[in-house]
Amino acid sequence: MKTATAGVFLVIAASLQTVAPAPAKDKPAYERGVLLQMDSTHCGYAEKDGKTLTGEILGTDGQHKNTKEVLCQEYILKSDRLIFRIRPKDDKHPTLLPVGESAEFRIHKDKMLLRVPESDGKEREYIVVSMTPRADASDTRAASAINR
After folding, report:
1. pTM greater than the 0.70 cutoff
2. Which of 48, 66, 120, 126 is deepest in the core (most CB within 10 A)?
3. Residue 130 phi/psi, 5° resolution?
4. SS3 state at 28
5. What pLDDT digit, counting tens, does each position of 85-115 carry?
6. CA nearest 95: which of 71, 116, 69?
């Protein structure tokens, strides 16, 4: 009985040693930029109907609608090579970012993930509205290509 237990123990010990450790997942690489400006931009309308369920059934409701313009935060983020215009993905509870501070960002699939280490450091999702190459960055890149 002792030899069978010892044999099972040896098999388990040998199998544990042959298992290769899983490689650690790399931390995402962030680019750095500066938040230059925040604007309020038009991003749609909020409509509130004057209709009620009983009014719909009986046909007594008027066609009264309250329409209100909705404004969204739009930031300008300047990186080494590009200027981004971004909007928060969460329209209902957007976080106010500190203008003039440096930020770290990365592009993942169809969204930008941005964090500001000086504030809370949380990573938040943003929609990229536009990207423009920096004029001064293209001049330095062209000059370095000519010098080669």
Report:
1. no
2. 126
3. -155, 155
4. coil
5. 999 988 778 888 999 999 999 999 889 999 9
6. 116
Q: Are residues 140 and 93 in contact, defined by beta-carbon separation less than 8 angstroms?
A: no
Closest CA to 76 of 46, 112, 118: 112
Q: What is the CA radius of gyration of the chain?
A: 28
Q: Are 27 and 43 in contact (CB under 8 A)?
A: no
Instruction: Give φ, ψ of 88 to 5 degrees.
Output: -65, 140
Question: For residue range 109-139, what is the model confidence (pLDDT) as tens digits?
Answer: 889 999 998 888 889 999 999 999 998 875 6
The two structure tokens encoding residue 120: 């809370």
Beta-carbon contacts of residue 35 (< 8 Å; ≥ 6 apart):
75, 76, 77, 97, 98, 99, 100, 101, 102, 103, 116
In the chain, count of helices (H) and strands (E)?
3, 6
